[in-house]
Amino acid sequence: MNAEAEPYTFQSALDKFMQSFYHETTLPVNPDSIALYEEEYRKYHQKNPEMIQRITEMEEAEFGTGLPEDKEEETAELSLVPIQPRLAQLDALEALHGTMEEQYDKAMVVMATGLGKTYLAGFFAQRFKRVLFVAHREEILFQAKKSFQRIMPERTHGIYNGQYKDGTADCVYASIFTLSMQKHRDGFAVDAFDLIVVDEFHHAAAKTYMSVIEHFQPKFLLGITATPDRLDGKDVYALCDGNVAYQMHFIEAIRRGWLAPFQYYGVFDDTDYSQIRWIGTKYDEEQLMAVQLQEEHVETIYAAWVRHKQTRTISFCSSIRQADYLAAYLRSQGVKVLSLHSRTTEMSREEAIRQLDAGELEVVLTVDLFNEGTDIPRVDTLLFVRPTESLTVFTQQVGRGLRLAEGKSHCVIIDLIGNYRNADVKLSLLDVRGDEERSGEK
Question: What is the residue-wise DSSP string for 210-234?
């Protein structure tokens, strides 16, 4: 400020500044005062979860997966709120910047669902001129576009998929299924993008992703995922030269207060899975359903759910027939329930999400629909009525219930545990130890 032009204003501002600078409550900025502030920040947000809720509504996982119409105006208002990185994102950004200083040109970030991987990618993308964001689901592309726009409103943003072909924008959000076609890939120069972000990076070992990764030569390749390991044994780590820049498991995120804690109830399932044929990576569906579609089995599930449930439940089923069968039983008990899958016609997925979030539905039974990219923060109960066939999928499904939300103290996980494959690996993931959980219900 020009002191000669505005002597009174300048002097007044200077006086105010010096009063604040020397005030008895002013703290110096150093590692100790920053640590103190961080602790106070966590305590405040734990006591005031509605602040977290406002942020969560804009988060990557399920922002943009079909917002109900009555939230459109609210979304427009939220889009005007300045975006700043959260604590987990700040840690990851610092690690990525360090990686670049060490001359790496690719890296993977492993962050638990709910910590804002898409926003992290957006903050990191500010360093680069042209950005390509690649994902395997359309809703993730549109969600990423909204997130990046909030961070970089001055740039142009375009979708590149089966319907739209805006490949000239500063930030392009491309469907892997479109970009993996050579005729579309060849429309881009190999050095067209400075940064390429691959969402759900554990998919990247597939041929479709490899064709894209091998075509481009960006200044930096960033893979983001909550679950880096693949059931087929393909090496995802090799795609980023083994460079995992940052890793935050959901157990550690819970400990830091960034995700909701959970209570796990392992419910004994007396099914003899050794008698059910194992085909490659899963159980024979017909033999499995012969066990699951029995009233006694469903009664066990219902009793456990009634005993432990909270307000909003997502249940993960093995098959459409199991989901429909269980839905019919719950409905007969007066439960407001929906079986949601590819053949559901009574309501759209977006309407189902709205009704569950609003508490109009108590339970949504699904078959693999909510594994990735769906955010319903107020879901506080997860019901697993299927044997775990993939640790990656189970980790993603658990993440559906760990978002922070107003009035939500924790998530309840109700899991039918039997002698099926991968059960012990699953328990190690949840940090559940001892024989108590294996022998019955905790």
Answer: HHHHHH---SEEEEEES----TT--
291 contacts: CB under 8 Å, gap ≥ 6: 271, 276, 297
Q: Is residue 370 part of a domain?
A: yes
CB burial of residue 110 (10 Å; 0-12, 13-18, 19+):
buried
Q: What is the CATH number of the domain that holds 345?
A: 3.40.50.300
Domain residues for 430? 260-439
| Mean pLDDT value across residues 113-133 | 93
| CB neighbourhood size of 167 (10 A) | 16
Q: Is residue 78 part of a domain?
A: no
Distance CA 78, CA 55 (A): 9
Type of residue at 277:
R
Sheet containing strand 363-366, strands side by side: 262-268, 411-417, 381-384, 313-316, 363-366, 337-340
Spatial separation of the C-alpha atoms in residues 263 and 265, rounded to whole Å: 7
If asked whether residues 237 and 271 sit together in one domain, one would say no
Dihedral pair phi/psi, residue 395, rounded to 5°: -60, -45
Kindly state whether residues 212 and 272 are assigned to the same domain: no
CA distance 110 to 243: 11
| pTM given for the model | 0.69
On whether both 241 and 382 belong to a single domain, the answer is no
CA atoms within a 13 Å half-sphere pointing along the CA-CB vector of 35: 3
Please list the residues that pair with 282 across neighbouring strands. Answer: 279
Kindly give the residue spans of alpha helices, DSSP state H, lying in 309-378.
320-332, 349-358
**Per-residue exposure over 13-37, b if at least 16 CB sit within 10 Å of its own CB, e if not:** eeeeeeeeeeeeeeeeeeeeeeeee
Q: Answer whether residue 23 is part of any domain.
A: no
- Classify residue 111: in a domain, yes or no: yes
Q: Is there a single domain that holds both residue 268 and residue 405?
A: yes
Proportion of the chain above pLDDT 70, given as a percent = 69
Q: How confident is residue 312, by pLDDT bands cut at 50, 70 and 90?
A: very high
Summarize pLDDT for 174-217 with one digit per residue, the tens.
998 899 889 999 999 999 999 999 998 877 767 888 889 999 99
State which amino acid sits at residue 372: E
Tally of domains within the chain = 2
pLDDT in tens, 251-260: 889 999 999 9
Q: Are 420 and 400 a contacting pair, CB within 8 Å?
A: no
